[in-house]
Amino acid sequence: MAIGIVEGRLGAKPVLIISALAKVTDQLLEAGNAAAKGHLGSALATVRNIYVRHEELADSLLSASAYGSLDRELRGEFQALESFLHDLETSRYFDLKAQDRLLSFGECFSSKLVSWALSEAGLQAAHVDARTCIVTDARHGQASPLWDVTDQRLRDVLNPLLQSGSVPVLGGFIASTMDGVPTTLGRGGSDFSAAIVGAAVGASRVEIWTDVDGVMTTDPKICSDARVIRMLSFDEAADLAHFGAKVLHPATLAPAMRENIPVYVLNSRQPEGHGTEINPVAARGRCCFAEYRVWSA
Ligand code: ASP
Ligand code: MG
User: Tens digits of per-residue pLDDT, 100-148?
Assistant: First the structure.
């Protein structure tokens, strides 16, 4: 599905920001907590599960030789992950800094997988480690980008790739400090990563692909009459996020807002849908924030 979406947008020179596979971040967190409490067996079993899921997906998407190469990379990463869990078991110390290091594995795995899958589909994909370009302060668990150096590094790495016709693929959510210590941008932070990258390279639009049709009036899993909000202003969208709408990370819009880049929230299961457009100007028509019920799930 994601491959089709990218293929349809090659002319626009896309950059891809990939989240961890569903639930992986929660599972990594669970594994870290278990290891630090001395339950190493359960932590390793959780990680094993994550490994099998990636392997199965790779198996379904890749040819035997590409699968072999990715598998070698993934095995190395998983060994590092397992040895980190051993360290946590020994130290019994799992602070936010250790958590960031642990959680960053999820986006590393998924972005490598997607990059290989795109190459397999004949696209010129180029995996870029987001931790080498998105530089943040050391507020672990909720780090903020150091804008100048981040913008510069992203441009330096991404522009030549884009010029040569490659599709850069980066893990969302993950970054690092000036000294290269892994950080994360807060849960759900891949949307933020997309806006950071979009702003740095002067993108004409940022698209956030989710499993709902766009920003909805209420939670479609709870209310069958949930409707898609077709257009929102940045202010209204930030309010929605602030009040707990799950679809957007509260800080996501800041870089896009700064550069006046419209943000689209779209459904990957219904790629032809209109989704929601969030743009700099106030929403038109009867689109009024006060009408919407806001949910948190
Ligand atoms: N994987 C991270 C999380 O679950 C980031 C994201 O998905 O946007 O919070
Ligand atoms: Mg998300």
Answer: 999 999 999 999 999 999 999 999 999 999 999 999 999 999 999 999 9
Give the helix ranges, DSSP H, for the chain. 2-7, 24-36, 40-61, 64-91, 96-120, 147-163, 190-201, 234-242, 253-258
294 burial type by CB count under 10 A (0-12 exposed, 13-18 middle, 19+ buried): middle
For the whole model, what pTM was predicted? Answer: 0.91
Distance between CA 212 and CA 49 in Å, rounded? 27
Alpha-carbon distance of 126 to 137, in angstroms, equals: 27
Rounded to whole angstroms, the Cα distance separating 35 from 241 reads 33
- State the ligand closest to the CA atom of 22: 1
Burial class of residue 256, CB neighbours in 10 A (0-12, 13-18, 19+): buried
Pocket test for ligand 1, best of 16, 18, 19, 105 (most atoms within 8 A of CB): 19
CA distance 154 to 133: 5
Closest CA to 173 of 14, 19, 16: 19
A 10 A CB-CB count for 180 gives 9
Q: What angle do CA 272, 278, 284 make, to 5 degrees?
A: 100
Distance (Å) from CA 190 to ligand 2 centroid: 6
Q: Which residues line ligand 1 (CB under 6 A)?
A: 19-20, 25, 106, 172-173, 187-190
